[in-house]
Write a structure and sequence with these properties.
Shape: flat
Helix content: 25-40%
Number of strands: 5
Strand content: 15-25%
Order of helices and strands: HHEEHEEE
Largest sheet: 5 strands, antiparallel
Radius of gyration: 20 Å
Distance between the termini: 51 Å
Number of domains: 2
Length: 125
């Protein structure tokens, strides 16, 4: 095997080994399978959220930029949203109601969910 092939093989093995370690040590009874959010799901999140704070979109037309983003206290009420809001979504950040305060949550089409400025307090056993 050439050095390049050996290196790629070793990297793939190490990734698989790392994933196996994470699954067995930290994710007992949890499957780390990836999921993706559909365009419809992201749009439903926007419609249900108190405010849409950030959006990354990928315009379909070649005459427009390859990727655009907008940031505002409530993005759907802006001229930016009027121009680009119907384009495919890559990532959004919204405010949602929490029990005691608003929570900022980000979603992207690849299934990543981010809680901003929050700490997770797992239930005590």
């Amino acid at each position: 095997m050439t050095d390049n092939k050996q290196s790629r093989f070793r990297e793939a093995f190490e990734r698989d080994d790392l994933l196996s370690l994470i699954e067995h040590q930290f994710l007992e009874d949890i499957s780390p399978e990836t999921t993706e959010f559909s365009e419809e799901a992201l749009r439903r999140i926007i419609s249900d959220a108190n405010e849409t704070l950030l959006a990354y979109l990928t315009p379909r037309e070649r005459s427009k930029p390859e990727r655009v983003s907008g940031k505002d206290r409530d993005l759907p009420g802006t001229d930016f949203w009027d121009e680009y809001g119907d384009e495919p979504l890559d990532k959004i950040k919204v405010n949602v109601d929490g029990e005691e305060k608003e929570i900022r949550v980000g979603f992207d089409k690849y299934g990543v969910v981010v809680l901003y400025k929050q700490s997770l307090n797992p239930p005590e056993k």
